[in-house]
Amino acid sequence: MLRAFARLYLVLVQLAVVLPATTWASPISTQQVQGVAAKGYRLLDLQPGVEPVWKTEEDKLELLRQGVHFFDVTEVYDPEEAALSVNIEPHATKANFPAPSHLSDIKPILETLSTTNMQDYLANLTSFNNRHYITSSGKAASQYIFDTVTAFAAGRADITVTKFKHPWAQFSVIAHINGSASPSASAPLVILGAHEDSINLRNPWTGRAPGADDDGSGTVNLLEVFRALVAADFRPSTPVEFHWYSGEEAGLLGSQAVAKAYRRAGTEVRAMLELDMTGYFKPGSKEVIALEADYMDAGETAFLKQLVETYSVLDWAMDAPVRNGLSGRIS
Ligand SMILES: *[C@@H]1O[C@H](CO)[C@@H](O)[C@H](O)[C@H]1NC(C)=O
Ligand SMILES: *[C@@H]1O[C@H](CO)[C@@H](O)[C@H](O)[C@H]1NC(C)=O
Ligand SMILES: [Zn+2]
């Protein structure tokens, strides 16, 4: 994680932005969505403020091949929110980010992070033919993550590891560490996430997709950080969750489902950090921790810069924002 080229962006905040009512002649009803989806179509959000559009699976794949960024909202589309409309502010009170002040606590834990361990987890993850969200190997990969995290958490009654199931084979994995100061479910969460799936765009179901960098790297960073924190008997004062998302490559499916469930349950999220493609940097280029500008909370970005300056041997750099379409870097 320290020696990493990180792409970080907020997934949850993206969901809080809902389209203005004026763009909606008549919002699609839940029944309509289910009916069309049953015929094999997918509802894609291609641009903020623009009505989502129906595409066949094949057209959707073609968009992915062309590098077009979108949210597949087929399972999470909410006609009420679309009808209500105005921009909905994020539920959680805007977080205040204090100056980093835990160097003496964190330094010894950083020293226990093992690149060898990360390579071992990665060998395991890349040994699956692919980790596509609908394949049996994709499901087995999520089971591997679940088993690994469960083993790390053994003996800790305050940690719960759950399978967040979806209508497709691969589940998302969530590890919840209770807050020691306020173990109530309502305390705002801090979430660290990565996507567990991979995709071969020419042949998603049976094609080889080791996904070592995208996003095996972010996945193993979080596995190792989780292991090291538990080994160091880390007891956060407020709850912390680790998420490994299913189906990101197919339009951020898993993270949207989790975000929707949390919103429905009134779960407050204080801050969320997503790691994607943290392993690779172009030979000859400077190794940095890259921060995303799109869809990020400015306060959190400023905080992340301070974290990097305080705790990492690397510098941070801002990735170039892409202003057309949904996000610069959904990768
Ligand atoms: C994957 O992990 C399992 C146990 O979790 C282990 O038995 C197996 O040897 C590992 N495989 C690879 C390729 O690392
Ligand atoms: C963890 O928090 C949950 C509520 O979120 C509570 O029900 C449970 O008892 C807590 N467990 C421990 C060991 O504190
Ligand atoms: Zn990715």
* CATH fold call of the largest domain: Aminopeptidase
Radius of gyration: 19 Å
Average of the residue pLDDT scores: 86
| Succession of helices and strands | HHEEHEHHHHEEEHEHEEHE
Low-confidence stretches: 1-25, 84-89, 324-331
Share in β-strands: 15-25%
Question: What is the architecture of the largest domain at the second tier of CATH?
Answer: 3-Layer(aba) Sandwich
The biggest sheet, with number of strands, parallel, antiparallel or mixed sense and barrel status, is:
5 strands, mixed
Category by helix and strand content: alpha/beta
Output the number of helix runs.
10
CATH class of the largest domain: Alpha Beta
CATH homologous superfamily name of the largest domain? Zn peptidases
Strand order of the largest sheet: 4-5-7-6-8
How many domains, in number, for the residues? Answer: 2
Strands, count: 10
Which compounds are bound in this model? 2-acetamido-2-deoxy-beta-D-glucopyranose, zinc ion
Helix content: 25-40%
Protein name: Peptide hydrolase
InterPro entries: EF_Hand_1_Ca_BS, M28_fam, Peptidase_M28
Keywords: Aminopeptidase, Hydrolase, Metal-binding, Protease, Signal, Zinc
Organism: Ganoderma sinense ZZ0214-1
